[in-house]
Amino acid sequence: EVLPEASAELPFAREDERPQPWLLRSLLERGGPPFYPLAQFHVFKGALGKSAGPLRELPSFLQVSENYHRRSWRLSCVRRLKNVICFLEWVPDAAALKRWTCLAPLSAEQHSRLA
Description:
This protein is largely without helices or strands and about 120 residues long. Strands 1-2 form a two-stranded antiparallel sheet. It has one domain. The N and C termini lie far apart (about 40 Å). The protein contains one helix and two strands; from the N terminus they run ββα. About 5% of the residues lie in helices and about 5% in strands.
């Protein structure tokens, strides 16, 4: 008989959870608050666990909000992640748009699913 594995009972940190408001005009600032590259996102798994490594392969235009997971939390405490409830697609300069080229070619199975 296979029993489902229960999630670990960890002492999740709760301080500094309040969202930090930010001004819409801050989107004009390149690479600054309130976002950071998703490739730098990783979580702390506790003193005995290892930190999950960053997602280095992700393109730089994918960003995550400090209100979702603060960078200061990643090596200091165990946090429960929230479900994503908002997705923002933002184009700062439509004239600078260009077709994105995929760095990894699609497999035959992926091609067949597109057909």
